[in-house]
Amino acid sequence: MLIRKTFGLDIKPSEITPRTIFDNRREFMRSAGMLGLGAIAGSVVGTPAAEASSSLSFSKSAVHTLDALGEEALTDPEAATSYNNFYEFGTGKDDPVVNARNFEPLPWTVAIDGEVANPGTYDLEDLIKPHMLEERVYRFRCVEAWSMVVPWVGVPLGEIIKRLEPTSNAKYVAFETLFDPERMPGQKRRVIPWPYVEGLRMDEAMNDLTLLTLGMYGDRLPNQNGAPVRLVVPWKYGFKSIKSIVRISFTEEQPPCTWNISNKREYGFYSNVNPEVDHPRWSQARERRIGGGLFTERIPTLKFNGYEEQVAGMYSDMDLKKYY
């Protein structure tokens, strides 16, 4: 895992790193040793973010290389931003990139409520400041057995939680996606219960790997990838990383989760990546990196998606076949 700290030095649009450099990111970073995260009005591929209607901007970042990933190559940005699960914009993998094109994600607010000392409705730029942002390269595993390696830009969720000061009664953190069928046309069909909801146990939410994310590949999140703010929980299957978040609630009881509500047999609350626990309709023992086509070689799935050292202790007393 690469962790890149950022500094509060805003960049002018004219200073944004050219797209050609991002497309050759590994070679560029080895030769130049830096990457700018600019205040960008557009997204990586296809769907433009809103024009500069928010003061929130990315910042210059520290020198780093991608050597922390070893031989793992980054997934091609076009593949990672055009093959998506985002039912709010359609159930097909290529529906979101088309149907989210005109979605305007800024300005944006997030409601905070429940067992917390500082509830309220926060502008996104008040909740997450530019100087807090980091870039982290994570493996990301979807339940359908495809995976990718993505550089995300965000802030550890635990840092936000500390500022909000949950009470001692807060055992879980619940999340809710925007419900607006006019802006998210997939919600006009009742394919799953709306709005989309997810949840984490408090220790999972506070784990340093859990990222409240604003961008990927150095740009703001594309609309189809959950603009303007989403969760990234890299040791869990992708549907736990809820997109376009409008509410964060602190609860004493385990919160409902959309796929667990829809099909409890197939989707458990925890949904940790586990090659030893098959999905009822397919094996989870192997996976395929997206972007390489149907004949891409399948590789072994790693327990907790390769983050066992950082997260296994949270589940040491649990039967992970029962609490799947």
Secondary-structure blueprint of this entry?
Layout: E1 2-10, H1 19-23, H2 25-32, E2 59-61, H3 77-80, H4 95-99, E3 109-114, E4 120-123, H5 124-127, E5 134-141, E6 146-156, H6 157-164, E7 172-177, E8 197-201, H7 202-206, E9 211-216, E10 219-220, E11 230-232, E12 245-251, H8 258-262, E13 286-289, E14 299-300, H9 308-311
Parallel strand pairs: 3-12, 6-13
Antiparallel strand pairs: 1-2, 1-5, 3-4, 5-6, 6-9, 7-8, 7-12, 9-10, 9-11, 13-14
Note the main attributes of this structure:
324 residues, alpha+beta, Sulfite Oxidase, Chain A, domain 2, nine-stranded mixed beta sheet, five-stranded mixed beta sheet, 14 strands, 15% helix, 23% strand, globular, disordered N terminus
Total helix count?
9
Calculate the terminal CA-CA distance, rounded to whole Å: 25 Å
Named CATH topology: Sulfite Oxidase, Chain A, domain 2
Q: Tell me the structural class.
A: alpha+beta
Rounded Rg: 19 Å
Question: What is the total number of structural domains?
Answer: 1
> Biggest β-sheet: count, sense, barrel?
9 strands, mixed
Query: What is the H/E string?
Result: EHHEHHEEHEEHEEHEEEEHEEH
User: What is the name of the CATH architecture?
Assistant: Alpha-Beta Complex
What is the 3D form?
Answer: globular
CATH superfamily label: Oxidoreductase, molybdopterin-binding domain
Mean pLDDT: 83
Portion of residues in beta strands equals 15-25%
Helix content: 10-25%
| Unreliable stretches | 3-54, 60-69
Number-wise, the strands total: 14
Assembly state of the chains shown: single chain
CATH class term: Alpha Beta
